[in-house]
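Notebook entry, structure prediction.
Reason for the run: the old model in the group folder had no record of what sequence produced it. Starting over properly, with the input documented here first.
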Amino acid sequence: MTWKIQAITGELTGQEISIDRDMLVGRHQAADIVLQLAEISRKHAAFLLVDQALWVQDLQSSNGTFVNDVQVADQVLLKEGDIVQFASLRFSVLAPAQAVEPAAEAEQAESAMALEQPSEAVAVSETAQQPEDAPKTAAQQMNDQGMPAMSERDANVKLSRDGMPQGISVPKPAPIPEGVDVSAVKPEPAPVPVEQPLTRVEEEKQAQKNASLGLMSLIVLIILAIAAWLFFK
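New structure, fully documented this time:
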């Protein structure tokens, strides 16, 4: 068990000091709790641990040791919340936390487990206690009418080595009604080819081809005209 004191005045305000053994308080560097003030004696006081209880003892200091504003003549037993004062420096006493007994821990664990039980368990217990005159579900009605359960239907189906079901008949196609002539059904019309428009490059090539043909025709006509003129001259 470790007691603590917390400074509530001076430069150490808010600082906690653990006391787990007999400790000397004073201005001397050899003290366990060093308080660097001129009003603190070199060996001012001592904290004593006796059977896990904390005592404070004044060591005939110059400015005295106080507990709850009462000067300590020899030594005083301390408890939670007491104010210990060395000259003008004041400290609050913090008692160690009490250990939880094993029985109390077991009770806390059982209560925590009871709170963490899933809601499904409650639902199952409630459904198991349904009265006989309660309305039946759709699954119960199917069982009453002779519909086998899913587990029974699975057991009746045999599987091959590849995992495919065996012994299951393939349903036949629906018969053709009387008076319906299957041959009279018109076939779907053949698709009409759609001419793709010429691209710009193809148009240019076609124009050049037409110009070349026209030029060749003109040259041929000129040659024929010259030949005819020379022939009839």
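Summary: The domain at 2-97 is CATH 2.60.200.20 (Tumour Suppressor Smad4).
The old model has been moved to the deprecated folder.
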